[in-house]
# Entry
Amino acid sequence: MTAPLEFSTLCNFRDLGGWRTDDGRAVARGRLYRSDSLAKLAGDDLARFAALGVRTVIDLRYPWEIADRGRAPESLDVTWHNLSIEHRTYVQADIDPDVDPWRYLADRYAEVAEDGVVELRRAVEVIAHDAHPLVFHCASGKDRTGLLAALVLALLGVGTDQIAADFARTEHATGRLVAEWRDRNGGATPRWPAYGRAPEALIRLVLAELTAAHGSVHGYVTGRLGVAEETIAALRARLLTDDEKPHDGDTTLWQAR
# Structure
């Protein structure tokens, strides 16, 4: 696995490269990244980020989140797309501790998959056709980002076990995500004790239900989202390689020092 790049301002940034596809290819490294909010980038991290060569950013947050907390710094000189895929607001820190949290969140992901079809379609199209390294992110890089990452990896032919492993790597950032929430909320503690969690079970449930409803993730993307087969072919041509070493399972994030 590529040696980690350390950021002091981001806690959930990683390369989606290295995962092996079912047909023996691999996702190329250095082309597609996922992250928590790039609005936090500052200081020396700006140069570290610039060294990646990222020229395009997809911001999955609501416009009001961007107005409140900012967008990717202008100094990065990137093409910036705001594609807010979530249309029904909820406060994750306030989830009832007595409900099944993964069932609850799977239902929220299902709402995104249903409501955000225009934005999700556009996100897939941008990723497929952009010629430069690209990063997509939301606030924590966990839910909206996790869903889009799962869809893209599935379209590339990565199996469910590896998609779930990538999703669960956010668990190594949970402590930092909770700390950031506390800092924003005067030192309070989230009502939901699992705030910041991203277990494999959650994304497995989401993918299983998309498959049950649409036959496969591919069926959901081409049917409900309306993504053209030519776009999926372009996605695979851009992001797959025969030369990449397989992912070694290292769960180290490119996260805060």
Observations:
- Residues 251-257 have pLDDT under 50 and may be disordered.
